[in-house]
Design brief:
Bound molecules: pyridoxal-5'-phosphate
Strand content: 25-35%
CATH topology of the largest domain: TIM Barrel
Helix content: 25-40%
Distance between the termini: 41 Å
Oligomer: single chain
Structural class: alpha/beta
Largest sheet: 9 strands, mixed
Number of helices: 12
């Protein structure tokens, strides 16, 4: 959806330069089609398996994007009361909301119970006790899954590997079995599922399928003990192409899961994709301010910075950076950096780009997931605007913050 036409980078049928002119920079520009296509692809790839796609709100939480999820009757995976609020505001059915995360507070639990969400994915004994108490005080029953740590290595960046034995997430299988037995006899808990999420940006199917097998074995074990589960939640993590990565196809995941789940009829598969849906749905559009050379190094300073897109600084992630109107000037190798007072403030390092002049626009690609949602006001920079494009039209779905927004409540 982001392609050159007549030497201009377009988003769908609109030149990105036009959005920069009318909305300013830095700005997140989403393509509606690029966001909805993966959602529709998931639905068709898993149509033979009873399933629920619960979009991971934390990766891209704008109400207009969540509205596209709601429109399709899909669910949401949330990790906070704030995300519950967003999901409900966007019209997502609370009966299709699953609540993950290691640190749910009593207040957040009460809000989710009152809303009538589908499942709490509980991650520790203390959390489950508090959930049972909270449900009791509201005279409700909480549907729960336990998040199991399957101890598989997803082979991704250590910050986004969450299913390792020593990670803070989930419960060891033996601990989970014990807790399942306790939960099964608690009148305020209804045990409905088993859950895991082993990490993000998985580039092979095998760790995901290995985790599915471990969960299936646990579900068999529980069945023998007389506890019949309804849901197997395998989390998110499906990888995407940032530059030349070749993630497995949805068909490969679906075929693998079909085999693994074949012995368990009546089980509904829950998937919590985030990055897979959103990553390639947006670019961060920035403008060149200056060009300078220090020693042997050339820098391009843009009006976009690590507060707008922290992934390169935080994870060393590489986002492709493309000129919006290629100038034809000779290429040079540059670091693309922002105005923030940190040496870690860069959008890209050692990039070969046509020599840039002040005012030239750059598109930082694959910025739709963990882009805007991780942005901050560091250096008292108002957060960027967000724009949603459909065909030749666009809509501002979040205006650029103002200085007044910066000091609200202080
Ligand atoms: C972050 C997260 C997801 C989404 O992960 P992606 O890699 O973006 O698909 C899903 N489930 C849980 C529990 C998460 O923490």
């Amino acid at each position: 959806m982001f392609k050159y036409r007549d030497n201009q980078l377009m988003v769908e049928d609109l030149p990105l330069a036009e959005i920069a002119d009318r909305v300013g920079t830095p700005v997140y520009v989403y393509s509606r089609a690029a966001f909805t296509t993966p959602l529709d692809d998931l639905e068709s790839a898993f149509k033979d398996i009873p399933h629920l796609v619960a979009f991971s709100v934390k990766c891209a939480s704008n109400l207009s994007l969540l509205g596209l999820v709601a429109e399709r009757g899909l669910g949401a995976d949330i990790v906070s009361g704030g995300e519950l609020y967003r999901a409900l505001r966007a019209g997502i059915d609370p009966g299709r909301v699953v609540y993950s995360g290691v640190g749910k507070t009593a207040r957040e639990m009460a809000e989710a119970l009152t809303a009538g969400i589908l499942i709490f994915n509980a991650e520790s004994e203390e959390e489950l006790h508090l959930l049972a108490e909270t449900a009791a005080s509201l005279k409700r029953r909480a549907r729960i899954s336990l998040r199991v740590n399957p101890a598989v290595d997803p082979g991704t960046h250590p910050y986004v590997a969450t299913g390792l034995k020593e990670s803070k997430f989930g419960l060891a299988p033996e601990a989970a079995l014990k807790l399942y037995r306790w939960a099964a006899q608690n009148p305020n808990l209804e045990v409905v599922g088993a859950d895991c999420h082993i990490g993000s940006q998985l580039l092979t199917a095998s760790p995901f399928l290995a985790a599915a097998e471990k969960l299936r074995d646990l579900i068999f074990q529980l069945k023998k003990d007389g506890l019949e589960l309804k849901y197997i939640d395998l989390g998110g993590g499906l990888g995407v192409t940032y530059q030349d990565e070749a993630p497995p196809s949805l068909a490969e995941y679906a075929a693998g899961l079909k085999g693994i789940l074949s012995g368990l009829p009546g089980l509904t598969l829950i998937l919590e994709p985030g990055r897979f849906v959103a990553a390639n749905s947006a670019v961060l559009l920035v403008k060149t301010l200056y060009h300078k050379t220090n020693g042997d190094k050339r820098f391009v300073i843009t009006d976009g910075a690590m507060n707008d897109l922290i992934r390169p600084s935080l994870y060393g992630s590489r986002h492709e950076i493309a000129p919006v109107r290629p100038s034809g000037r000779p290429e040079v190798v540059v670091d693309v950096v922002g105005p923030i007072c940190e040496s870690g403030d860069f959008l890209g390092q050692d990039r070969r780009l046509p020599a840039l002049a002040a005012g030239d626009l750059l598109a930082v690609k694959s910025a739709g997931a963990y882009g805007f949602t991780m942005s901050s006001n560091y250096n008292s920079r108002p957060r960027a605007a967000e724009v949603l494009v459909s065909g030749g039209d666009f809509r501002v779905i979040r205006p650029r913050e103002t200085y007044e927004d910066l000091v609200r409540g202080e």
